Structure prediction request, 265 residues.
Amino acid sequence: MFNRFQLAKKYFKYQLAASSGKGHGIHSPFVFDFIKNVLRDKKKYDWYTVIETARQKLLKQSTEIEVEDFGAGSAVIKTKKRAVAAITRSSVKPAKYARLLYRMVNYYQPPTILELGTSFGITTSYLAAANTHAQVYTIEGSAAIAEIAGETFKRMGLSNIELINGNFNSRIPVLLEKLKLVDLAFIDGNHRKEPTLDYFKQLLNHSNASTILIFDDIHWSIGMEKAWAIIKQHPSVTLTIDLFFIGIVFFNTDINHKQHFSIRF
Prediction:
C-alpha cells in the first residue's frame, strides 16, 4: 500500500487533472446527469443525521474486540485486538463518500444491493436507508465486527438488510447464485489486486446494462491501481468515473463507446 506522503502526491495530481465536477466540459449526457443530480446534490436528507449519530456513538466506544482480518488489513491498525473507536476512525467510510452512496441509491433506485465489507454497518445503513424497498445483502468476515453492525441496524430500525458473516471466498458464490442479478454493488472488503478482479469477474456474471459497481480505494496501492486499470478496459464496461477514493463502473449499453472520467469530488 502507498504511504500517506505517496497518497497525498497522487491525490494532488488527481486534483490537477480531474474535471471540475460542475459539469462544464462534460460531453456525456449520462455523466452530466450524474454530476447534477447525484454528485452535486446538496439536499440535507434526514437519514444523514440519524446515521452520523450512530457513527459518533461508535467513535466513543473504547471497548476492544478481536478482529479476524481476511483482507489486505488496516493501513493504520496492525493488531488483532482493536478498539471499536479506532476501527471506526480508520476503516469506516467517511460521511462524504457514504452520503454519495446514499444519493446514488436514492437516484437510481437499485432493487438488489450487495456490499462486500460491512464493517460496523454505517455505509450499509446509508445504502439501505436510501431505498427501503430495496434488499441489501452485506458480507463481513469478522464475527465481532458483524455483531456490532447488527446492533447498528437494529437501533436504526432498518429491516431491509441481510447480514452475512463469513469468508468472502465461500460466501460470495453462494449468495450470487441465490440473487441471480445484482443492481448495485459496493466492493470494500479486500484491497488487493487479484481478489478485487475476482469479485469483479463474479459480479459480471450477475450484472446487466443498469448494474452499477463501486470499488473502494482504487488508488490505495499499486495492485489496486492495476486492478482498476484492468476493470476499465474490460469489454463489458462502457463508462467509469474516478473520484480518487472510489471508482464507479457502469455497463450502460446506450453508451456506444468507452468513456472514462476523472472528476473532482
In short: The chain has a mean pLDDT of 92. The longest strand covers residues 135-140.
